[in-house]
Design goal:
Helix content is about 25%, strand content about 35%. The chain is α+β, with helices and mostly antiparallel strands and about 170 residues long. It is extended. About 10% of the residues have low confidence.
């Protein structure tokens, strides 16, 4: 039984949250505690966030959502059962859960507890070069500089349009 740190971002129905904010949050917390989770941080991530595309659930088209993020520790074997229970939650539009890498745990939890702005989780990744893709090894020889002279400019891009004479018909 491995206990892991998880981060779940919930996209909640903004009309139901507006009607009963504490009730919706309490239902999520109770659902987690039902499976033995220890809630470390729970807070709004983005209130009344516009969705990238409309989501239809229960004959209602949602264009906005109330985003709520929870960090919790739970046995990894119970995560699937927890997510199964979320499917019947009427206030929930979508959710995404990720397992937090232990090397990031302290930094992410510190940001979640102390950052006062919205979308705080994105800010912690900006200082780490591996989060932006720097230092990632590619199998593409051109991305590693192989086959090119040092200091030489990259080869010109080929266009679809021909620069030469037109084709005879």
């Amino acid at each position: 039984m491995t206990i892991a740190l998880y981060e779940t971002l919930f996209a909640l129905d903004s009309t139901k949250v507006a009607a009963d904010t504490d009730g919706v949050k309490t239902a999520l917390h109770n659902n987690l505690e039902k499976y033995g989770a220890e809630i470390l941080v729970a807070r709004p991530w983005d209130e009344n966030g516009k969705l990238a595309y409309p989501i239809r659930k229960q004959n209602v088209t949602h264009k906005k959502a109330y985003f709520y993020i929870i960090y919790y520790k739970m046995e990894s074997t119970k995560q699937a059962d927890f997510e199964g229970d979320l499917r019947i939650n009427e206030s929930l539009i979508r959710q995404i859960t990720s397992r937090v890498d232990p090397k990031w745990a302290e930094t992410i939890l510190d940001l979640a507890k102390n950052e006062t702005g919205s979308r705080f989780a994105i800010k912690g990744m900006a200082d780490d070069p591996s989060a932006t893709g720097e230092g990632i090894i590619s199998n593409d020889p051109l991305s590693r500089g192989m086959g090119m002279d040092d200091g030489a400019p990259p080869p010109p891009r080929r266009s679809r349009r021909m620069d030469g004479p037109e084709k005879p018909e």
